Fold this sequence. Notes:
It contains 2 helices and 7 strands. By secondary structure, it is of the alpha+beta class. It folds into 2 domains: 1-28; 32-120, CATH 2.40.50.140. It has a 5-stranded mixed β-barrel with strand order 2-4-5-7-6.
Amino acid sequence: xxxxxxxxxxxxxxxxxxxxxxxxxxxxxxxxxxxxxxxxxxxxxxxxxxxxxxxxxxxxxxxxxxxxxxxxxxxxxxxxxxxxxxxxxxxxxxxxxxxxxxxxxxxxxxxxxxxxxxxxxxxxxxxxxxxxxxx
Length: 135
């Protein structure tokens, strides 16, 4: 009988720990929603401070790197809408003007998206090497 109680107690403890971990992972501060640039701008103040993922193309001529810092400012465009982005970190090697990017972070009250992560999308088209071509 005592053995059954110990097993029941241990099993209950494991279940409670799992429920706690699952429920603590679903709070408002850790949630990240996918949104288009247009949707994010339409939400306006309702979106300030919330976590979002937004994709778009880096607008040519918009990349500004701060000297002596790792801060980068740029704009992305999707469906004719533009979004200003600030990122403090090391950018991927494939980050460049016109690149498809996915940014993750928070939209702030200054109408600037403060990115915590910047991902570049890989090219989906690879061309075979032409062996007959000479340089």
